[in-house]
Amino acid sequence: MENDTILNIGFDDTDSPKGMCTTFLAYKVVNFLQKEKTEFLDYPKLIRFNPNIPWKTRGNGAVSIKIKTSNPTKVKNKIKNLVSKYSDTINGANPGLVFFQSDSIPKSFTEFSNLALWQLINRGTAKTFAKKNNLEFFYQGNGQGLVGAIAAIGYDFKDHTLELLSYRKKSKFGKKRKISTPSVKVMQENTFPNTFNSFDTKKGKILIAPHGPDPVFYGIRGENVNSLLYATNIIQSDEKLDGYMIFKSNQGTGDHLQNILNHKNMKPYASGYILGIVSILPKIIKGGHVFFKINSENHEFWCAVYKPTGLLNIASNLIIGDKIRIGGGVRKASKNFPRIINLEYIKIISLEKDHKKINPLCISCNKKMKSKGKNQEFQCIRCGKKESQKVTIEIPRKIKKKLYLPKISAHRHLSRPLQRIGKVNKNTKFDDSVSWFHVYEK
Q1: Per CATH, which fold does 5-156 belong to?
Q2: Residue 365: which pLDDT band, with cuts at 50, 70 and 90?
Q3: Residue 133 contacts residue 190 (beta carbons within 8 Å)
């Protein structure tokens, strides 16, 4: 196939809250391409973009596939038909599809993709980009899916993970998933640290299965193909599945929080991090959520830590002067608050000493003295000994200089779990001889 066409295919926004899934479309596309004896040049890529985009359905994931084909026209036409067939446009999906014929990806694509990781890109910008770069593109609805379609093609991996997604038969769409809880627990124990975020041991809760009506039965995230194939053989369920596919992904990399936020780029829905000093003591509001302010480069920013993260105790023990790095997404201003950063992690760089003034201690009786009144001296009620002023003591801090992450059930698709801190995965080479795609017998 030396003289064949190298084709990059990108698509996004084919699902809605009521059904379908962009990865399921990818599964159907790959099934078609395999029957056409297409040469795959890499694993299908599942790229998660800015999770704070308000109109995303679930994980804001787009897919790209790189192939070599002798009949690009036939492939393009068939994929267009598949996008139309497997997009839930009736319930609000706005699918976008892009074709780019080249072995190398221009820098402009990568820049577009990097921006989509942490900022909001509107569909008009995507359409302009597609026309400027002479891309073949197709969309339905308002075309918002073109953003992810272009960005998925342009994504440049600095680190990656893999995910095995198993799919249900059509007759099971929308029905309750039944997976053996003990089998998921055993799977996590047997595959750690090569899989992650599969089971919440504190809550006894399965984390690999979605809860909506989409075609995905479960997804196992990990570091290599063999671990995923081993893991899926441990999972037990009575449901007969349609098949599975392994994606190369940026999940678990924290890619969306690599850019520094400041007063110029802190636009609504942006994601990133800020390094600064706590400037206003944390306040606990109704519902148990914690709000405080951080000063960075002479600008103050409101920060919010919500109860589901499990970080309330950490946030509430911050004091003025603590130096911290926080990562999160920018919430749009409301009537009651300006723009707020919703925290996804807190890293404590340094802790201020916490001093408190208390009534002096009688050294003879080992009892706290009592005040005789406003601006009066202090006196021991037992022996009568007097002191003129309060004493200052240092209160031990209840938090430490370290990284604090949300509890596992509050992790987003892109959140970097504790076991991946400091880990960079660059060495997964595509091997078409392994069972990365499989449709079960009917």
Answers
A1: Alpha-Beta Plaits (3.30.70)
A2: very high
A3: no
SS3 23: helix
Half-sphere exposure of 27 (CA within 13 A, CB side): 25
Pairwise CA distance, residues 194 & 186, whole Å: 14
pLDDT band at 199 (very low <50, low <70, confident <90, very high): very high
Task: State residue 268 phi and psi, 5-degree precision.
Answer: -55, 135
Paired tokens of 395? 């209160």
Q: Looking at the domain 255-351+397-413, which fold is it?
A: OB fold (Dihydrolipoamide Acetyltransferase, E2P) (2.40.50)
Contact 316, 404 (CB under 8 A): no
Which CATH number describes the domain made up of 161-249? 3.90.600.20
* Exposure string for 315-333, b = 16+ CB within 10 A, e = fewer: bbbbbeebbbbbbbbbbee
pLDDT, tens digit, 9 for 90 and up, residues 157-183: 999 999 999 999 999 999 999 999 999
Write down the pLDDT at residue 249.
Answer: 98
